[in-house]
Amino acid sequence: MQNPFQNAMAQLSKAAQIKNFGDEFITRLRQPDRDIRISIPVKMDDGSLKIFEGYRVEYNNALGPYKGGIRYHPDTEINEVKALAFWMTIKCAVANIPMGGGKGGITVDPKKLSKEELERLSRGWVQKLSDILGPRKDVPAPDVNTTPEIMAWMTDEFEKITGDKTRATFTGKPIENGGSAGRGPATGLGGFYVFDSLRAQIGLPEKCKVVVQGFGNVGSNAARILAENSHIVIAVSDSKSAILKEDGLDLAKVEAHKKNTGSLRNFPGAKNITNEELLELPCDLLVPAAFENVITNANVSKIKAKAILELANGPITPEADEILFRKNIPVIPDVLANSGGVTVSYFEWKQNLKNEHWTEKEINAKLLPMMQDAAQKIFEKAKENKIYLRMGAFILALEKIKEKML
Ligand code: GLU
């Protein structure tokens, strides 16, 4: 797989070519403030001891405490975590929240652990990192395969070790553990708000044919919200399967089917297709909502979507990005499109520090104008400089970060 950190740095170089930020600033942004690797010993249910490798990368805190999720995946490694932490730095600036960028992870397939092992592993991650975490220092959150329940274990462990009772060190918690209303669907909803704000400007019709890759928290919520707003979701996929129904999928039924059978495969009335075929379907909007590097030099020429909404982090490689730009296929970039998640995380952190609870209605009423504002500012920036939206977002973010660092 292409190294995601190299991809992230290629994007930074590109931005530095468009606007002169000065060598010193760009050089500083080529390295995280610190990257930490830990080994986490876990007593397994059979009595044996297993050591897992974990990470926390604190990339940049010019705008506020380091902020970003923790990923559990067998392919997670330090370069991926560094890339994700860099993108969080850009994302928080784009979303206009007072947070810096960080990311964490553990190399593990959580599906192979019992619930008890998963809890011991998650608490172990906190035990090794409690010194550097805290509401004003570094505030982790969920990412791929990390759930509100895991955030609750981590919050509890952090409180046990440090005595901190604010519960503001981790976001994405269950509501009863200090979590925020609306955090679950926030990334998908924020993505919809951004898309809805830019749809006409990027030349898409009122009723779009949509294809969604990935059916985790982000992909499934985005698909549902798009369908609820009169778009037609024709295809979705998860890690094992993909399904297509030209006249539109009933997403409540798709969710139920996945819950009952463990997979999307053989959904009544739909055709089973491969993940590759899904990406190459003709549609108005393609929504990659899974992992990095899914649109690359190898398949970019086969993409038939009219526009792309990146809800995953880093799904398009820099080379493929250039080709899409030349082909006039607009890409609403990850750092804007999926920033609804961290924005509601910021709301959660704020509620915890002030000991308040905001309703889902209040949360969404705050989220909508922030997403619209970020989307329009980036659209203007890109138009003004005749560059693509990702570079519009980068320039806007880098200007903000540079100003604070000086
Ligand atoms: N993991 C999410 C992201 O990539 C959310 C981060 C957060 O809420 O801090 O944006």
TrEMBL record:
<dbReference type="InterPro" id="IPR036291">
    <property type="entry name" value="NAD(P)-bd_dom_sf"/>
</dbReference>
<feature type="binding site">
    <location>
        <position position="345"/>
    </location>
    <ligand>
        <name>substrate</name>
    </ligand>
</feature>
<comment type="similarity">
    <text>Belongs to the Glu/Leu/Phe/Val dehydrogenases family.</text>
</comment>
<feature type="site" description="Important for catalysis">
    <location>
        <position position="143"/>
    </location>
</feature>
<dbReference type="InterPro" id="IPR033922">
    <property type="entry name" value="NAD_bind_Glu_DH"/>
</dbReference>
<dbReference type="InterPro" id="IPR006096">
    <property type="entry name" value="Glu/Leu/Phe/Val/Trp_DH_C"/>
</dbReference>
<feature type="binding site">
    <location>
        <position position="187"/>
    </location>
    <ligand>
        <name>NAD(+)</name>
    </ligand>
</feature>
<feature type="binding site">
    <location>
        <position position="91"/>
    </location>
    <ligand>
        <name>substrate</name>
    </ligand>
</feature>
<dbReference type="InterPro" id="IPR006097">
    <property type="entry name" value="Glu/Leu/Phe/Val/Trp_DH_dimer"/>
</dbReference>
<keyword id="KW-0560">Oxidoreductase</keyword>
<dbReference type="InterPro" id="IPR046346">
    <property type="entry name" value="Aminoacid_DH-like_N_sf"/>
</dbReference>
<dbReference type="Pfam" id="PF02812">
    <property type="entry name" value="ELFV_dehydrog_N"/>
</dbReference>
<feature type="binding site">
    <location>
        <position position="67"/>
    </location>
    <ligand>
        <name>substrate</name>
    </ligand>
</feature>
<feature type="binding site">
    <location>
        <position position="217"/>
    </location>
    <ligand>
        <name>NAD(+)</name>
    </ligand>
</feature>
<dbReference type="GO" id="GO:0000166">
    <property type="term" value="F:nucleotide binding"/>
</dbReference>
<protein>
    <recommendedName>
        <fullName>Glutamate dehydrogenase</fullName>
    </recommendedName>
</protein>
<dbReference type="InterPro" id="IPR006095">
    <property type="entry name" value="Glu/Leu/Phe/Val/Trp_DH"/>
</dbReference>
<keyword id="KW-0520">NAD</keyword>
<keyword id="KW-0547">Nucleotide-binding</keyword>
<dbReference type="InterPro" id="IPR014362">
    <property type="entry name" value="Glu_DH"/>
</dbReference>
<dbReference type="GO" id="GO:0004352">
    <property type="term" value="F:glutamate dehydrogenase (NAD+) activity"/>
</dbReference>
<feature type="active site" description="Proton donor">
    <location>
        <position position="103"/>
    </location>
</feature>
<feature type="domain" description="Glutamate/phenylalanine/leucine/valine/L-tryptophan dehydrogenase C-terminal">
    <location>
        <begin position="180"/>
        <end position="406"/>
    </location>
</feature>
<dbReference type="GO" id="GO:0006538">
    <property type="term" value="P:L-glutamate catabolic process"/>
</dbReference>
<dbReference type="InterPro" id="IPR033524">
    <property type="entry name" value="Glu/Leu/Phe/Val_DH_AS"/>
</dbReference>
<dbReference type="Pfam" id="PF00208">
    <property type="entry name" value="ELFV_dehydrog"/>
</dbReference>
